Amino acid sequence: MEFFYDVIVIGAGHAGCEAAAAAANMGSKTCLITMDMNKIGQMSCNPAIGGIAKGQIVREIDALGGYTGIVTDRTAIQFRMLNRSKGPAMWSPRAQCDREKFIWAWREILDNIPNLNIWQDTVDELLVENGEVIGVHTVWGVTFHAKSIVVTAGTFLNGLLHVGRVQLPGGRMAEPASYGLTESIARHGITVGRMKTGTPVRIDKRSVHIDEMEIQEGESDFHSFSYMSEPRKLKQLCCWTCYTNPEVHRILRDGLDESPLYNGQIQSIGPRYCPSIETKIVTFPDKEQHQLFLEPEGETTNELYLNGFSSSLPMEIQIEALRRVPAFRDIEVYRPGYAIEYDYFDPTQLRHTLESKLVKGLFLAGQVNGTTGYEEAAGQGLIAGINAHIACHGGEPFTLGRDEAYIGVLIDDLVTKGVDEPYRMFTSRAEYRILLRQDDADMRLTERSYNLGLASAERYEHLRRKRAKIDEIIDFTKGFSIKPALINGTLESLGTTPLAHGCKLIDLIGRPQITIENMSEAIRPFGALISEITERKEEIVEAAEIKIKYQGYIERERMIADKMQRLESIKIRGRFDYNSLQSLSTEARQKLTKIDPETLAQASRIPGVSPSDINVLLVLLGR
User: Fold this and answer.
1) Mean pLDDT across the chain
2) CA angle, corner 275, sides to 270 and 276, nearest 5?
3) Are residues 526 and 598 in the same domain?
4) Which of 96-105, 477-486, 580-589 has the lowest mean pLDDT?
5) Phi and psi for 440 in degrees, rounded to 5?
């Protein structure tokens, strides 16, 4: 049996859902192939979206017309804005979600996208002719023909689960692994490696002494993930925290000989920034406790996720150790934690569009590129889906710069530097953090997506109205003069220095103690202006205030980014035979040949390429 499509997406995890939705919404006839239609958008590990830098990625996906933010808001059972004690460049939204409702929210969206079909099956072969994809073959004997293929297989490629010395093939607990596709892709010269990740034990809430744990409430203000979402509708729940102790560590340490991570059973590298509990006690032997977070899996279920206790130790050791935590002394579990090894492909063999340099029309996104995290996967999937559509129908490739989006930082890091461990996004990886705030992702990206044909007219009109209101507020503060007699009483009550002379309102709002809210209460014309905002007032006021307070920092960082952009504009791909340039260091010749950077700026970010090597290239370019 044969089917014909423009775009085929393999895998319906977070990357696959975004890729399929983007390609179909842009007009490509698209098929999403998944092993299990009841596990679309499955949260394989913790039931949460967002976090440090990850929340910014979700806001960017939403601004571009993706769906992860909308699905998160619809299924959120707790929302928090992290890093509030720091500047707005560091604020990061995070939400606990109902795992099952998350799946069905995605399913509802995908079922109603024109041009998108879903097929339940397993792909076992990539079909290539003359260095170009022509389709895929499945285990049920079906052939799908397509111009673009997006592989988003997550941890399923030759997946192997570990609990102590027990090993079982699988892509997730109780789900089969995928065989054949890795080898089919590798035959075309694409480098394959192995990585490891893990997930913690799941606990029955009824067996936990909740009253002995510290409660962690959520927030109920206006913040959300999507710029288009309605207020959260599900019941909002709390999380709880507690700590391990020396007795827990003793039991874990005594069981290390049975740990796949330490007895040689697992050879691949796991995520540095989300280590297992056994890795924590080995890496930090003097630390007497580690914090644990108990998180609800859903609005009505008793199943709880134990964040901070990822493990592949034998299940009896996991349970025995946990029962030494006072609040867990009587726990019953649904399943133990486990580790999983899986195949990934070297991302330096990709272009910034996430298309393979070796096989035309083949796109890779998500954990198959060596990343970890739902958000990193979804961001890649969106870009891959966009460019898979463009590869079918023509148009300029769509990429994001490091000064435009965390997604741009993520992809540039992958294709330029590669990975030697699962890649996780942090704010520290972005050199332009003040430009990449969570509050202004729509300002940065929605117009680009609208012009591309992805973001809807409704979304673009929403942005236009919001931008106009923000500009109106800022223009008012620039033009409104304040006399000391009018405002000094208010300034003294707010604990800030009274005015000796008149000034513009914008200069006052720049003070730490002053906000648009308290100035709108003190200054009647300003208050009237703010009260006229009827649509998403809090969001608009916050965005305007951030722009006012951080204007100098934003302008300085924009100037630095524009200066670096000059190197981004110098195209060098195909202009040099690096191996013949003896004036370059040996390492630079090897790395530049392997990566084949698009621009001089990308070349400058390759590990092993020094500033002197860049100067050599500038001289050869006549610069």
Assistant:
1) 95
2) 100
3) no
4) 580-589
5) -115, 20
**Backbone region of residue 260 per phi and psi (left: phi > 0; alpha: psi in -120 to 50; beta: other values):** alpha
Q: Is 513 exposed, middle or buried (0-12, 13-18, 19+ CB in 10 A)?
A: exposed
> Which pLDDT value is given to residue 623?
60
Cα angle at 378 between 375 and 383, to 5 degrees? 130
Instruction: Residue 307: give its domain's CATH number.
Output: 2.40.30.260
**263 in a structural domain:** yes
Of 268, 303, 338, which marks where a domain is finished? 338
Structure tokens at 528: 């009237």
Burial pattern 17-50, b for ≥16 Cβ within 10 A else e, equals: bbbbbbbbbbebbbbbbbbeeebbbbbbbbbbbb
Determine the average pLDDT of the residues in 35-53.
97
Cα distances (angstroms) measured from residue 140 to each of 11, 136, 210, 217: 16, 12, 48, 48
Residues contacting residue 295 through CB under 8 Å, at least 6 positions apart: 46, 47, 48, 96, 239, 304, 305, 306, 307
Please say whether the dihedral angle defined by the alpha carbons of residues 421, 425, 427 and 432, taken in this order, is positive or negative. Answer: positive
33, 144 Cβ separation under 8 angstroms: yes
What value, to the nearest 5°, has the Cα angle with vertex 469 and ends 467 and 472?
110
User: 237 vs 204, 241, 300, 468, 609, CA distance in Å?
Assistant: 16, 14, 10, 36, 50
Domain that holds residue 496: 456-557
Shared domain for 235 and 333, answered yes or no, is yes
CATH number of the CATH domain containing 592: 1.10.150.570
CA torsion through residues 297, 300, 303, 308, sign: positive
Classify strands 362-364 and 291-296 as parallel, antiparallel or unpaired.
unpaired
Please count the residues of the chain.
Answer: 623
CB atoms within 10 A of CB 581: 16
SS3 364: strand
Q: Phi then psi for 169, rounded to 5 degrees?
A: -65, 140
pLDDT in tens, 442-463: 999 999 999 999 999 999 999 9
Identify the pLDDT of residue 476.
97
Banded model confidence at residue 608, pLDDT cuts 50, 70, 90:
confident
pLDDT for 569 equals 84
Note the pLDDT of residue 610.
87
Give the DSSP H/E element, type plus range, for residue 338.
strand 338-345
Q: What is the mean pLDDT of residues 98-102?
A: 98
Summarised one tens digit per residue, pLDDT across range 534-569 is 989 999 999 999 999 999 999 999 998 888 888 888
Question: What distances in angstroms separate CA 398 from CA 355, 408, 448, 460, one per listed residue?
Answer: 11, 11, 9, 18
What are the tens digits of pLDDT across the range 114-170? 999 999 999 999 999 999 999 999 999 999 999 999 999 999 999 999 999 999 999
Identify the sign of the CA torsion 268, 402, 30, 230.
positive
Instruction: Quickly state the pLDDT bin for 375 (edges 50, 70, 90).
Output: very high
- Asked if residue 284 belongs to a domain, the reply is yes
pLDDT exceeds cutoff 70 at 381:
yes
Residue among 152, 592, 591, 170 at smallest CA distance from 377: 152
Q: Are residues 552 and 574 in the same domain?
A: no
Residue pointed to by tokens 């696959």: 16
Using the 3D structure, point to which of 557, 586, 611 is the last residue of a domain: 557
pLDDT, tens only, 280-319: 999 999 999 999 999 999 999 999 999 999 999 999 999 9
> 2 to each of 24, 120, 136, 361, how far by Cα in Å?
20, 15, 10, 19
Q: Name the residue type at position 226.
A: S
529 phi, psi to nearest 5 deg? -60, -45
